[in-house]
């Protein structure tokens, strides 16, 4: 059928792509775990970050990896502001409203991008884009390898923040018991906004990792968000380890089913795994037993 | 004055995507002829629509600067523009609006789906409609008297593409025998793949594999891995710009170098933007597509004017430039901006084809019989015509020299 080196390469490709998927899912799962909202604007926010990376390259010829230094705090600020001044106030404390607000936000963002940038597809030709690392007969794409390492690092960092810092404790407290947290003096609105900001910061990192090899147009984020939702449910809603493991699984499944069935049919593999997991473990891989 | 129905207003309100203001209704001047131009300048096809609109505007500028429609006492052409927003339903509604504004004819459309609904709506008012690019064969097979296609149909393009592929291979001593087809899984890519699967084996090519991918595709690594393991002589891609760029760059990165990449109506292979942004990935890619006559001095001038307007040149500009000029000639031959007389003129007479390599354009059952695609190849960071011989600027680089 296929030479072993092709199969090994497909597996590695899957792991590398899956790690970036995981990073996108991370923001989604965190926001769900703490704010208990499903953020429909996630895809549009990813697109915003991707345009920011492209813009930094087009205007200042800034390498996507370097641009991370500026774009991550910017996206954190955007996320913080959106939650604090738009989503929070507009939802009046009802989760149903939040759904509609984030959905509305995604429509506004997408069309604002459309008005600003037209629906043109844009890509950037960075130096790293076409480099490969040769391991014997294997050709591993350098930007994907960087993406893999960076995704793991960010996931680890996020875990440390949540488990080892005061901010992380506050976030976990609010996720567990909102009223109790408020009573002991935690500023719930601030914690919400910080969480949303962290979610957007994860997207910013993902955007910087994607752009050397991918392209952006006002609807690009949508292609990733369906996968991200799948990963969140597969890994367990609100679980960080789940997002990482789920992302890697989905990446490898997609890669192999794409190789064996062709890319169009290959998408089936993702959803088959998804349905199987839900049948066997309705809470997802790392989900808490409800 | 056209008053939209309440439902249309609601629907438009719901769609609420375009931030374009409706063009102000221009009061007809004493002696001007209104020409409807319809293009998707927002939505998924906005880039193409934008270039098509530019081509039409340049043609009207030139016609008016040269004294307007001489047969009509120097009447000026006046554009009434409509944005179809890349949506077939909107294309039909906007056509209704153009009719209400009293245009003499309509030129444009771009996408096959958009052309289908717009020309159908126009047919209700005997409003002449000239399709600029839409390739679906069915467009001129619906028995609509008002609908004419300036460009070659899908069938004409694929026929030329296959003939020239065989000629190209024979001339090089038949180096290519095995093929992998990579196509997007929508109507356009799948239709082309099916046709190639039927025709290529008859011409002595062996199809190793047909790989389909969704649009948008997140990743082309697996497609390229398959190509790498199959090692075909030829890769025939049919996909849109974004995916084509992804494919070409991934192939370059994975050092997959077939003897030729031969696109048919390819997404990126005839786009100077692709050539400019990714010169290495683009080098050597061939495409059978709409392309202006390189030997016509006006072609180079149009390219300059497109770049002066801050855009990368693609076939939409010369196609629409030429189609509008043809329509102006038809109005002159009709002797008046009278819809039925224009349809009569288009159906019976022949016209010059602007900068397109069509010789004299004549319409049989609405299809321009002179329409012809050209084969191009990216050579030295530019798009060069390599076939047919009458229009070739350069020799084909095939099999590709590494």
Topology readout:
The complex is a heterodimer of chains A (290) and B (402).
Chain A: H1 4-35, H2 42-60, H3 64-91, H4 95-117, E1 122-123, E2 132-135, E3 138-141, H5 142-164, H6 166-176, H7 178-183, H8 188-210, E4 215-216, H9 220-235, H10 240-261, H11 263-280
Antiparallel strand pairs in A: 1-4, 2-3
Helix pairs in contact in A: 1-5, 1-8, 1-9, 1-10, 2-3, 2-4, 2-8, 2-9, 3-4, 3-8, 5-6, 5-8, 6-8, 9-10, 9-11, 10-11
Chain B: H1 6-15, E1 32-39, H2 46-65, E2 76-83, H3 88-100, E3 105-108, H4 112-123, E4 129-131, E5 147-149, H5 154-171, E6 178-184, H6 187-199, E7 206-213, H7 221-230, E8 234-238, H8 241-253, E9 260-264, H9 272-277, H10 279-282, E10 286-289, H11 297-308, H12 316-334, H13 339-348, E11 350-352, E12 360-364, E13 367-368, E14 374-379, E15 382-387
Helix pairs in contact in B: 2-12, 3-4, 12-13
In words, what does this structure look like?
The complex is a heterodimer of chains A (290) and B (402). Chain A is mainly α and 290 residues long. Chain A starts with a helix and ends in a 10-residue tail after the last helix. Chain A is built from 11 helices and 4 strands; from the N terminus they run H-H-H-H-E-E-E-H-H-H-H-E-H-H-H. The longest helix of chain A has 32 residues, at 4-35. Chain B has 402 residues and is an alpha/beta fold. Chain B has 13 helices and 15 strands. Chain B has helices at residues 6-15, 46-65, 88-100, 112-123, 154-171, 187-199, 221-230, 241-253, 272-277, 279-282, 297-308, 316-334, 339-348; strands spanning 32-39, 76-83, 105-108, 129-131, 147-149, 178-184, 206-213, 234-238, 260-264, 286-289, 350-352, 360-364, 367-368, 374-379, 382-387. Chain B is elongated. Chain B starts with 5 loop residues before the first helix and ends in a 15-residue tail after the last strand. Residues 12-30 of chain B have low confidence and may be disordered. The chains are: A mainly alpha (290), B alpha/beta (402). The interface between A and B is large, with 42 and 41 residues.
